[in-house]
Amino acid sequence: MSPGGRLFARLYDPMMSGAEKAGLGELRRVLLTAAKGSVLEIGAGTGANLTRYSADVDKLTLTEPDPAMIRQVQPRVREHAPGALLLRAPVEDLPFTDDSFDAVVSTLVLCTVEDQLRALREVRRVLRPGGVLLFIEHVRADQPNLARWQDRLNHVNRVLGRGCNCNRQTLRKVPPITRPLIIGTAETTQGERTDAQDL
């Protein structure tokens, strides 16, 4: 565990507090009303979503690849979701069988994964037919001027944000380069399993 990783994990909540108060926290709450049954949260980070799950969640499983973040989230899991299972695992290689979950939650995660397509294939694989991906992600801006700034500052943002790409094309009171957000739900098909891109 690198000193930089430990410092980033400790500072993550203070850095995000303005965005959470300015509306990100409410977006999380609204999104998570759709989480029901057996739920997997990928990239759980420091546990910002833990207090927003309802009694409709029968079983909660959390994954997080970063050991420093695991240390930050463990006390919150014990306090807010003592029945939850917390595992260290990357999104690109989830340790679950096919069709394991009714919902997968991803909030501000897909900007940092090494292989976004592989990560989405894994999400599709572990979702049951009719299951849902619930997501909030910051994305590349539509405005050309802001998109150019995202491209220019992406290297710096990756270093400061521990791998966060501010210019990813993934379909607040934060720095403008990470402000464009997408929020939504993607539902798996009821029929036979097809390619992950269908998600």
What does this 3D model show about the protein?
The chain has helices at 3-32, 67-80, 116-126, 144-160, and strands at residues 37-42, 57-63, 85-87, 101-107, 127-138, 181-187. It has 199 residues and is of the alpha/beta class. It has one domain (3-187): Rossmann fold, CATH 3.40.50. The chain has a 6-stranded mixed β-sheet. Helix 3 (116-126) links the parallel strand 4 (101-107) and strand 5. 36% of the residues lie in helices and 21% in strands. Helix 1 crosses helix 2 (67-80). The chain is globular. It has 4 helices and 6 strands.
Summarize the structure.
This protein is an alpha/beta fold and 199 residues long. The chain contains 4 helices and 6 strands, in the order αββαββαβαβ. It has helices spanning 3-32, 67-80, 116-126, 144-160, and strands at 37-42, 57-63, 85-87, 101-107, 127-138, 181-187.
Summarize the helices and strands and which ones pair or pack:
Blueprint (H helix, E strand, L loop, with lengths): L2 H30 L4 E6 L14 E7 L3 H14 L4 E3 L13 E7 L8 H11 E12 L5 H17 L20 E7 L12
